[in-house]
Each structure stands twice: as C-alpha cells, then as structure tokens.
Amino acid sequence: MQTDLDLDNCDKIERIDNIVSEINEMRVVEEIVPTIGQHIEKITSRYKSEIDNVFTIIKDTFDLEKWKKQKDSILDFSIAEKGFHYLNVCRRIHISFRNDSTLVINKLREFIREFSNVVQIEMTQCFTVIKQYENGNKQEIFDKASKLLSRLEEISEIKVKYIQVFTCFQNQRIIEDWERELECYLTDLSSEMTCLNAGENTDAVNNKLLIAKALSKLDRFLKGKKYNDIYSTSQHLFLNTTSDRGRQVIEDINNFKYEHVSNDMITLQTANQVGQHLFVQAKRVL
Known about the structure:
This protein is mainly alpha-helical. It has 2 domains: 1-172, no CATH class; 177-286. The protein is 73% helix and 0% strand. The chain contains 12 helices and no strands. The chain has helices at residues 13-24, 36-61, 64-69, 77-92, 101-131, 138-161, 163-166, 174-197, 202-215, 227-254, 258-269, 273-285. Helix 8 runs antiparallel to helix 9 (202-215) and helix 10 (227-254) runs antiparallel to helix 11 (258-269). The termini are far apart.
C-alpha cells in the first residue's frame, strides 16, 4: 500500500479504509497461515499512523494556547480548510480504527471561533486609535490603518477561498459590518471636516486630515465616497484658507493693523507646512 494519505489526499481515505478492512478480514485464516497476522498488523499500523500524523499536523498548526502567545504569527488557512475536509471524511466513513477525528474537528472549530473574536477586537482597537488621534504619533495611525487593512483582506480571502473555515467565524457578517462601520465614520468625518474648515482650529483640521489620509488605505472596502475624496477636498480647501490668511497677515502688517496680526500668526504657525512657510514669510516682513 504505497498511497499517501496526507492532507491533499483525503479523497483516497475511503478506498484505502475499505482495502484495510478487507485485509483485516483475512485474520480468519491466521490458524492456517500464522504469519499473516504480522503482515496485517503492519499494514493496519501504517494506515493508522498516516491518519494520526495528519491529525497531529492539524492540532499543532492550530493550537489555541500556542497561538495566544504569538498572535502575530502567520496562519495558513488552506491547511485548516483541507483539515476540515479530511476530518469530515474520517467521521463520515467511520474509519476502521478508533480515532479522535471528532475531538480534533471540535478543537479546530474552537480555534477558528477564537481567532475571529480576537481579530474583531484587534480591528476595533485599531479603528478606535485612528479615530481618536490628536497631535500624537502620526506613524502610529498609519500603522493601525495598515493592520486594519491587513485583517480585512485576510478575512475577505478566508470568506472566498476557505468556506469551511469561514463558517466557524463567530460573526458571519464581519466584512459587511466593517464596510458599514467605515461608511458611517466617513459620513461623520466629512461633516466634521466641513465644520472645521469653516472655523479657525487648524490643529483639529490637521488631525482630521491625517485620519482621512490613514483611512484612505481602506477605500477599497467602500462602495461610494472614499476617504481619499474627503482628504483631497478638505486639504485643498484648507490650503486655500491658509494661503488666504497668510496673504491677509502680510497685508495687515504692511497696513500696520497689528491687532489682527497676532492671532493669525499663531494660526499659521500651527497649520500645515504651507501655513508654516507663510508664517516665516510674515515674520520676515515684521
């Protein structure tokens, strides 16, 4: 019996199991052919060993306690998908020797459920950090956006390519829920940007621009308006407003209207690079 019974050959298990069962029925002639028992045992043992090896691979690859200690490790869900098919075959045909296929498949399901829960929490935390950004580490929110994108892409791939795996997810609508979440915040952010651009709070505008830019990484999950649309429109308006204010400051300086200059200089100094450039120009005029 030279057939491999690895994860890629679950379609051969039933045929091999039938052969092994037929071979074991030959034990009735053991009294006539005493040596036949050891040959039967050798074949049965090898068959059992190959099945058990696959079970071990599945259990070791998707060990929940081990994964909790290194959650950033890359998981190969093609193995999980093949594992489900393999284990289901073993359960369906009532394989000819006692095995723990039911236990292994339950552990695998538990792992996938826990994975989906942990990922959901991680994504929510990333999104919260991005939305709450205020004059902090710019790179952090871009890293969080990249992480959020990576998880959404990973889940999307699982949903399409690994159907058995995805059926174990706690939330079967996780992609749709995140699409809705992103769309809702896009609407809120757009309204906030409109109000802020009409005001004087350049710090807040800069913060929201950075948030929009970071979240534009996720635009492929939006069907209508994109975060990059908000970023481009608001940035253009902000640059124009900042430039107008800079020109007004220089004009006020030239006209000795110093009572207007102070506040506008502070606004320019805390604005974007264009504003800071105009601030330097205004200082030279002074």
